[in-house]
Design a protein that fits this description.
Strand content: 35-45%
CATH class: Alpha Beta
Order of helices and strands: EHEEHEE
Radius of gyration: 12 Å
Number of strands: 5
CATH topology: Alpha-Beta Plaits
Number of domains: 1
Mean pLDDT: 93
Length: 95
């Protein structure tokens, strides 16, 4: 049986202005994964996925390297995320 993970991922490359946040939201919504995604000022996209099955997280992460059609993902940094409380029961795009 797989365990539950809380992860923060930071995606770099051509990931802003190409629909990456909306694409990731659709992917997470389709898989019932909660969390959020936002554009960072440095041109990267940051996302937190929480209470996700570890096997499902790995599948989502693999897809994140592909991204939407116009994106070019150069690197993804994966970090553990210390979840203090459930921030949301959905996957949302933060401004």
């Amino acid at each position: 049986m797989s365990h539950i993970v809380n992860k923060k991922i930071t995606i770099s490359g051509t990931v802003q202005g190409v629909g990456y946040r909306w694409w990731l939201k659709e992917l997470c919504d389709a898989n019932n994964v909660n969390g959020w995604v936002l554009n960072k000022k440095d041109g990267k996209v940051e996302a937190v996925l929480f209470n996700a099955n570890a096997v499902l997280f790995k599948t989502i992460l693999s897809n994140c390297f592909l991204g939407p059609k116009k994106s070019v993902v150069e690197n993804i940094l994966v970090e553990d995320f210390d979840l203090k409380k459930n921030e949301t029961s959905i996957f949302e795009i933060k401004k």
